[in-house]
Write a structure and sequence with these properties.
Its main location: cytoplasm. 3-methyl-2-oxobutanoate binds at residues 40-41, 79, 109. Catalyzes the reversible reaction in which hydroxymethyl group from 5,10-methylenetetrahydrofolate is transferred onto alpha-ketoisovalerate to form ketopantoate. It catalyses: (6R)-5,10-methylene-5,6,7,8-tetrahydrofolate + 3-methyl-2-oxobutanoate + H2O = 2-dehydropantoate + (6S)-5,6,7,8-tetrahydrofolate. With 260 residues, the protein is of the alpha/beta class. The longest helix is centred in the last third of the chain and has 18 residues, at 232-249. The chain is globular, with a radius of gyration of 20 Å. 42% of the residues lie in helices and 14% in strands. Bound molecules: 5,10-methenyl-6,7,8-trihydrofolic acid, 3-methyl-2-oxobutanoic acid and magnesium ion. 5,10-methenyl-6,7,8-trihydrofolic acid binds at residues 41, 44-45, 52, 138, 147-149, 210, 212-213, 218, 223-225.
Length: 260
């Protein structure tokens, strides 16, 4: 965490990816991704829900545990799911403690601005490192009117106030999702802690993507902020098709794959 602040001071951008299992966590860790997020986006990208709203602590905990087991270097951040922290700072702390003790998370993330400063404060003063998340906050998508850019016009000032309140409450970093690049730049320059952008332009201190978007495993129309660095959907589909054909033709298993 302190290291991330030094990177900000030196103006060196860093990458963050989601991870939900041990193979991806190990690969991303070895590829030099310093922060891995076990996102509540597992709702969409592991469990097949249509929003992040239904995913539970009990569903996310084993994924967090798998990721922390797999990494040697990365900081593992566990996303607190909808309903597991909003009720009170006490509820937030109880949930964060589960992610730290049972999931062995190094830090937690929660969505919300100023209104959640008391929750963040309760966690940080109990020794739980917290990452904030402002702008488009998917857990509130029903309130925000869908996938919409946040912080346009006067709402930009609100975003700066939210970010400052989270910093003041002790957050070590803040995610900004779907925010105009100019506003994200202003927030980034207003904070001493690093900002992590997703659809928030090039001037954030760090950038995050959902790994299945980054690697082209998820099909369908990706959000505008996604850049695809591989075509895993194509590669996996080709592999499964080739395996199926081999089995049907009697070409797998060959002698090499058999015991005598
Ligand atoms: N695979 C995946 N990637 C994500 O980035 C992601 C998740 N899942 N699940 C949780 C949230 C939901 N998020 C989303 C989902 C969709 C859009 C989207 O469709 N955006 C469109 C419309 C934007 C607009 O209308 O202004 C886009 O083109 O960016 C954006 C963020 C970000 N998170
Ligand atoms: C996209 C990131 C920031 C997130 O919150 C998630 O993956 O759940
Ligand atoms: Mg999330």
């Amino acid at each position: 965490m302190h290291h991330l602040r030094e990177l900000k001071e030196r103006g060196e951008a860093w990458p963050m990816l989601t991870a939900y299992d041990m193979y991806t966590a190990e690969l991303f860790d070895e590829a030099g991704i310093p922060v891995l997020l076990v996102g509540d986006s597992a709702a969409n990208n592991v469990f097949g829900y249509d929003t992040t709203v239904p995913v539970t602590v009990d569903e996310l905990l084993p994924l967090v545990r798998a990721v922390t087991r797999a990494v040697k270097y990365a900081l593992v951040v566990a996303d607190l799911p909808f309903g597991s922290y909003q009720l009170s700072p006490e509820q937030a702390l109880a949930t964060a403690v589960r992610f730290m003790k049972e999931g062995r998370a190094h830090a937690v993330k929660l969505e919300g601005g100023r209104k959640f400063a008391p929750h963040v404060e309760a966690l940080t003063s109990a020794g739980v490192p917290v990452m904030g998340h402002i702008g488009f906050t998917p857990q509130s998508e029903h309130n925000l009117g869908g996938y919409r850019v946040q912080g346009r016009g006067t709402a930009g000032e609100e975003l700066v106030a939210d970010a400052l309140a989270l910093q003041e409450a002790g957050a070590f970093s803040v995610v900004m999702e779907m925010v105009p690049a100019e506003v994200a730049k202003q927030v980034t320059h207003s904070l001493q802690i690093p900002t992590v952008g997703i659809g928030a332009g090039p001037d954030c201190d760090a950038q995050v993507l959902v790994w299945q978007d980054m690697a082209g495993l998820r099909r369908g129309k990706a959000p505008r902020f996604v850049k695809r660095y591989a075509n895993l959907a194509g590669a996996l589909s080709d592999a499964a098709t080739a395996f199926a054909a081999d089995v049907r033709r009697g070409e797998f298993p060959a002698a090499d794959h058999s015991f005598h």
